[in-house]
TrEMBL record, chain A:
<dbReference type="GO" id="GO:0005829">
    <property type="term" value="C:cytosol"/>
</dbReference>
<dbReference type="Pfam" id="PF00285">
    <property type="entry name" value="Citrate_synt"/>
</dbReference>
<keyword id="KW-0460">Magnesium</keyword>
<dbReference type="GO" id="GO:0046872">
    <property type="term" value="F:metal ion binding"/>
</dbReference>
<dbReference type="Pfam" id="PF00549">
    <property type="entry name" value="Ligase_CoA"/>
</dbReference>
<dbReference type="GO" id="GO:0006633">
    <property type="term" value="P:fatty acid biosynthetic process"/>
</dbReference>
<keyword id="KW-0479">Metal-binding</keyword>
<dbReference type="InterPro" id="IPR016142">
    <property type="entry name" value="Citrate_synth-like_lrg_a-sub"/>
</dbReference>
<dbReference type="InterPro" id="IPR036291">
    <property type="entry name" value="NAD(P)-bd_dom_sf"/>
</dbReference>
UniProtKB/TrEMBL annotation, chain B:
<feature type="domain" description="ATP-citrate synthase ATP-grasp">
    <location>
        <begin position="2"/>
        <end position="260"/>
    </location>
</feature>
<comment type="similarity">
    <text>In the N-terminal section; belongs to the succinate/malate CoA ligase beta subunit family.</text>
</comment>
<keyword id="KW-0067">ATP-binding</keyword>
<dbReference type="InterPro" id="IPR016102">
    <property type="entry name" value="Succinyl-CoA_synth-like"/>
</dbReference>
<dbReference type="Pfam" id="PF16114">
    <property type="entry name" value="Citrate_bind"/>
</dbReference>
<feature type="domain" description="ATP-citrate synthase citrate-binding">
    <location>
        <begin position="297"/>
        <end position="473"/>
    </location>
</feature>
<keyword id="KW-0597">Phosphoprotein</keyword>
<protein>
    <recommendedName>
        <fullName>ATP citrate synthase</fullName>
        <ecNumber>2.3.3.8</ecNumber>
    </recommendedName>
</protein>
<keyword id="KW-0963">Cytoplasm</keyword>
Length: 662, 487
């Protein structure tokens, strides 16, 4: 599976690192009934549990399996065809099926399923899975399956001869061969408990969490686990101790049995009967946890749903005594179990029933990137940096301010803008000014180019975003751009120390219009109220309005030439905004210039006008207006007359005046 | 989440509502009932701590108008999962509402000892008194086992029924309802000691009762006495469940929640339709099912706090206070490991000193672990000092996926906040934990114990899961030769 040599030394393509597995060339020899799992077991995982699947594949890999145990994923909400997984350091593609029937048909070699469906849906999915005769065992992971449904499942399973492990279990493990779902924990624990190679001890535990502990105990005191099953903590597990104990008894490779029972239920007694009647002859080391229950004055429901004694027989103390009486090796306390197990193991070794095997080399498994990062073992430069908001913690942060404080302090949209645009709280008057600009620029009637575009797009039947964007795309140096231009020109003149009259004169000499000066209808005698509002607010609240004062002086010069050359709303907003950046105290001089250069003023206009453009979209939709077609008679058609063959570039030029109106 | 006991009032409300509605599994000998039962007369009266008892009783009159019916006689009893109430004098029979009120007022919010458990009486049930001849009393019990559901029936009921396990007639209904017994089989299996004349009526009732049991996912149901008074031509009967105990399967909430709720809605209980006072909207037609704590184990503020936190996350956080002045406290991760720890403490002879049972698991966040640990530590340090000091086990098995270092950060934060008190109370701390990144977690907690001067012993996976318990509690078990975790 090594990637093909790359001729010209180019980097590996992602595709070169993918391992593909061929389907089996022939059907496998059937396994004896007691071998539920073996090194060629193939399964489906029901549910999109990529972490568990990866764990299973990693386990397969360190067990030196030729093929992954997971043949595919069944995910009914699917849509995805393959799921990419690691196979050692390479990658492999696992098929994802939306229908169970399809998956079964594609993989006749699969005979077991790890069912991760939720407690609500596990009943239906398990019943469906059991309809396929190829399925011999199903592990049900979900906790909280209704007891009646669990009993119905186990009833059908019994009739069909399907082995159910669970519900409410982590699953089970067959070292060196197959691992159900998340059993055994993470890789380093699996390696520490030597689960990559088989031992001689078979265990059945009720609790999944404690099965991890058993793996550890068995690895420390014996030659290791042969097979382990956690039957689950519910009242009605699909299979119980006896089912697996009988399998271990029948399996010649399993030498010592371990049973970890629990208070509640009577399933341990069936193992006792099997020992008494001579069906089980191998040594059993056993313990029932929950001995404390009898010593407490009140009833306590322990962690597991089934761990509740309804009669004396179901208490852990009576179970332990009964098992001891039947000849099981039962320690005095659970803490003594390792010592007892070790003794039984040594006896088996000296009797020759167990021959400790040569220890294979400890396999290596690459550590997952995300885990290594969590452990602080590796670092990597990030491709993106963001300094304004953070959604990872308990609460969304805007420039460090928790969203709950945003509302508690009632900072308004201007406050949010100051946090996200400038990464700082600006004084209240500044936030108010930003809001004022948004309100003033929100709309300027349907006739301006942005609104027109939005209206036409809307009438063409397009959606909100298309209509809004088509309007926004008109914003530039001609439409809406006067803000940036005005700020730029006025600031430059002011900073150079030009007197207002010099400034006006220079501009005229350069044949340039002064952005922010002039209005189609308003004049000195008929002032624009919007401008008055801005002026009054800034004069009342800003610490300094030097540039505004300068602009007003410029207006005095220009209006003396023509009455309608007044400081318009763009000009007023632009110069006031510069005053704000320079004088509110929150920005250094460099920062203020930087923000202006970035075009933040245009941002204000885009944001404000979006309100109006959306309004025009809604308006047109509300009116149910139809597709717009511009009348022919409103278009002058001037086409080159081919016959006369006018020289290139000599076509008649049409001067169209650029309107300065928004 | 498991099979849980419910209030008698709720059990009766569910039966009353669904007896005529739940689909029977096979046709019964009687024609299907066309009229549903009238609303159940069940006055459930609850007193919170500090409530004005008289005020609550007066309010009950408004909620349950049937209490004021002239000449009516009632039964009053506490409804708090107490067994054998009659024997403890907790049953007031054949009382007028005035008498019942006085009887309740004398007991409400007072401590009561039942057998060897003490607890506050908070919830009472008042319902109409049903005079009936002795021979109409029966005993019935349905309970679930692996193979199916047992129905136990005995032709005599009442407090003195005796050992029903031995003498009742029994019939196992298999899990697969296609194998449900015929009417004849039911009569033969359960009613051999009952006059044949009432067989049809009883078979009909048993079938309906079982239908409700299945439909509403009960796991246990006992009615004793059950009173069945047939009408003159034995085509129907008046059925009264005088005393009822039931468990339902809490995990079936997603299937049965609607049915549990509607049976307990205002309309089904004949309550006047009052606009709900707190403006809360229920997700079903009635209130969500309540699962009361066993008698004598009211949830403390801290337990309620942990339960609330538990309900809000995918992680599992459990806390039960067993003895708030106990010397031995546990802070154990994992459902199985927590039981193992309690076992070990009990078998070391400290059952009576075991202060709490609890566990945290399922990868709780650092903050959740902090609040959990902080609550346990607060409880431990609130109890008076003990001359021999206290013992705290910070234990757990080998975690599957929980990052031990990160949950331990929460525990460490909690330890830091109370460090001086820990030493003042002479608390010995024993730590054992393993699983992902345990090395880091153990190293950190050890460093903190050195820094804060705590009396702490730290162990990793080389130590048996609960091996630290005998070391801490059994004299002579711990010696210098036992190797602790090295950073």
């Amino acid at each position: 599976m090594a990637p093909a040599a790359v001729p010209n030394g180019e980097a590996l393509a992602a595709n070169d690192n993918i391992t593909r597995f061929a389907p089996p060339s022939r059907a496998y020899t059937p396994q004896p009934d007691h071998k539920l799992f073996h090194p060629k077991t193939r399964c489906f995982v029901y549910g999109m549990q990529t972490k568990a699947v990866q764990g299973m594949l990693d386990f397969d890999f360190i067990c030196k399996r030729k093929q992954p145990s997971v043949a595919g994923i069944i995910y009914t909400f699917g849509g995805q065809f393959v799921s990419k997984m690691y196979w050692g350091t390479t990658e492999t593609l696992l098929p994802v099926y939306q229908s169970t029937a399809n998956a079964m048909a594609k993989h006749p070699d699969v005979d077991t399923v790890v069912n991760f469906a939720s407690s609500r849906s596990v009943y239906q999915s398990t019943m469906e899975l059991m309809e396929f005769p190829q399925i011999k065992s199903i592990a049900i992971i979900a906790e909280g399956v209704p007891e009646r449904r669990a009993r119905e499942i186990l009833h059908v399973a019994q009739k069909k001869g399907v082995t159910i492990i669970g519900p409410a279990t982590v699953g089970g493990i067959k070292p060196g061969a197959y691992k159900i779902g998340n059993t055994g924990g993470m890789m380093d624990n699996i390696v520490a408990s030597k689960l990559y190679r088989k031992g001689s001890i078979g265990y059945v535990s009720k609790s999944g969490g404690m099965s991890n502990e058993l793996n550890n105990i068995i690895a420390q005191t014996t030659d290791g686990v042969y097979e382990g099953v956690a039957i689950g903590g519910d009242r009605y597990p699909g299979t119980t101790f006896i089912d697996h104990m009988l399998r271990y008894q029948a399996d010649p490779e399993c030498k010592i049995l371990v049973l970890l029972g629990e208070v509640g239920g009577v399933e341990e007694y069936r193992v006792i009967e099997a020992v008494k009647s001579g069906v089980i002859t191998k040594p059993i080391v056993a313990w029932a946890i929950g001995t404390v229950a009898g010593m407490l004055t009140t009833e306590v429901q322990f962690g597991h749903a089934g761990s509740f004694a309804n009669s004396q027989l179901e208490t852990a103390a009576v179970k332990n005594q009964s098992m001891r009486d039947a000849g099981f090796h039962v320690p005095e306390t659970f803490e003594d179990l390792p010592a007892v197990l070790s003794k039984v193991y040594k006896e088996a070794v000296s009797a020759g029933t167990i021959k400790p095997q040569h220890e294979p080399a400890v396999p290596k498994i690459p550590i997952d990137y995300s885990w290594a990062q969590e452990l602080g073992l590796i670092r990597k430069p990030a491709a993106f940096i963001s300094t304004i908001s953070d959604d990872r913690g308990q609460e969304l942060l805007y420039a460090g301010m928790p969203i709950s404080d945003v509302f508690k302090d009632n900072i308004g949209i201007g406050g949010v803008m100051s946090l996200l645009w400038f990464r700082r709280r600006l004084p209240d008057y500044a936030a108010k000014f930003l809001e004022m600009v948004l309100m003033l620029t929100a709309d300027h009637g349907p006739a301006v180019s942005g609104a027109m575009n939005t209206i036409i797009t809307t009438r063409a039947g397009k959606d909100l975003i298309s209509a809004l964007v088509s309007g926004l795309l008109t914003i530039g140096s001609r439409f809406g751009g006067a803000l940036d231009g005005a700020a730029d020109e006025f600031t430059r003149a002011y900073d150079k120390g030009l007197s207002p009259r010099d400034f006006v004169d220079t501009m005229r000499k350069e044949n340039k219009l002064i952005p922010g000066i002039g209005h189609r209808v308003k004049s000195r005698n008929n002032p624009d109220l919007r401008v008055s509002l801005v002026k009054e607010f800034c004069q009342a609240n800003f610490p300094s309005t030097k540039l505004l004062d300068y602009a007003i002086a410029v207006e005095t010069v220009t209006t003396s030439k023509k009455d309608n050359l007044i400081l318009n709303v763009d000009g007023a907003v632009a110069v006031c905004f510069v005053d704000l950046l320079r004088n509110c105290g929150a920005f250094s001089a460099e920062e203020a210039e930087d923000y202006l250069k970035m075009g933040v003023l245009n941002g204000l206009f885009v944001l404000g006008r979006s309100i109006g453009l959306i309004a025009h979209f809604l308006d047109q939709k509300r009116l149910r207006t139809g597709l717009y077609r511009h009348p022919w008679d409103d278009i002058t058609y001037l086409l080159p007359e081919m016959a006369q063959g006018s020289a290139p570039g000599q076509a008649q030029r049409v001067e169209v005046a650029a309107g300065d109106v928004k | 989440m498991s099979a849980k006991s419910i209030l008698e009032a709720d059990g009766k409300a569910i039966l009353n509502y669904h007896l005529t509605r739940a689909p029977v599994i096979k046709p019964t000998p009687l024609p299907a009932q066309t009229i549903h039962n009238p609303p159940a007369k069940l006055a459930s009266i609850t007193f919170a701590e500090g409530d004005n008892v008289q005020g609550v009783l007066d309010a009950a009159e408004a909620t349950y108008p049937f209490l004021l019916a002239p000449g009516a006689k009632f039964v009053a009893k506490p409804d708090q999962l107490i067994k054998r109430r009659g024997k403890s004098g907790l049953l007031k029979l054949n009382a007028t509402w005035q008498e019942a009120k006085e009887w309740i007022a004398a007991r409400a919010n007072k401590v009561q000892k039942v057998e060897h458990v003490e607890g506050y009486l908070r919830t009472f049930l008042v319902e109409p008194f049903v005079p009936h001849p002795q021979e109409t009393e029966y005993y019935i019990n349905i309970n679930s086992v692996r193979e199916g559901d047992w129905i136990l029936f005995y032709h005599e009921g009442g407090v003195e029924v005796g050992d029903v396990d031995a003498k009742a007639e029994k019939l196992l209904i298999p899990v697969d309802l296609k194998e449900y017994p015929s009417n004849e089989q039911i009569a033969k299996g359960l009613l051999s000691k009952v006059p044949a004349g009432v067989h049809n009526v009883l078979v009909d009732f048993i079938s309906r009762l079982y239908a409700v049991y299945v439909d509403c996912q009960f796991t246990y149901l006992e009615i004793n006495p059950l009173v069945v008074i047939p009408n003159a031509d034995v085509t129907s009967a008046d059925v009264h469940f005088l005393d009822l105990a039931a468990k339902i399967d809490q995990t079936a909430e997603f299937e049965c929640g609607v049915k549990w709720a509607i049976a307990r809605s205002n309309a089904a209980l004949g309550k006047p339709a009052v606009a709900s006072t707190d403006g809360k909207v229920n997700i079903d037609a009635g209130p969500p099912m309540e699962f009361p704590a066993p008698f004598g184990r009211e949830m403390s503020k801290e337990e309620a706090y942990i339960a609330e936190m538990d309900a809000k996350t995918g992680a599992s956080l459990k806390l039960t206070i067993l003895n708030s002045t106990g010397r031995v406290w546990t802070l154990v991760a994992g459902g199985g490991a927590s039981v193992v720890y309690a076992d070990a403490i009990a078998s070391a002879g400290f059952a009576s000193e075991l202060a709490n049972y609890g566990e945290y698991s399922g990868a709780p966040t650092e903050t959740q672990t902090f609040h959990y640990a902080r609550t346990v530590l607060d409880l431990m340090l609130r109890a008076p000092m003990h001359p021999e000091g206290k013992v705290l086990f910070i234990g757990g098995g080998i975690a599957n996926f929980t990052n031990v270092a990160s949950t331990f950060k929460g525990v460490i934060r909690a330890l830091r906040e109370v460090a001086p008190l820990l030493n003042e109370h002479k608390v010995q701390i024993w730590v054992r934990r393993a699983g992902p990144n345990y090395q880091e977690g153990l190293k950190n907690i050890k460093a903190v114990s050195v820094e804060l001067g705590l009396n702490m012993h730290v162990f990793g996976p080389e130590m048996h899961v609960s091996g630290i318990v005998p070391l801490a509690l059994v004299p002579g078990k711990y010696h210098e030769g036992i190797k602790e975790f090295e950073g």
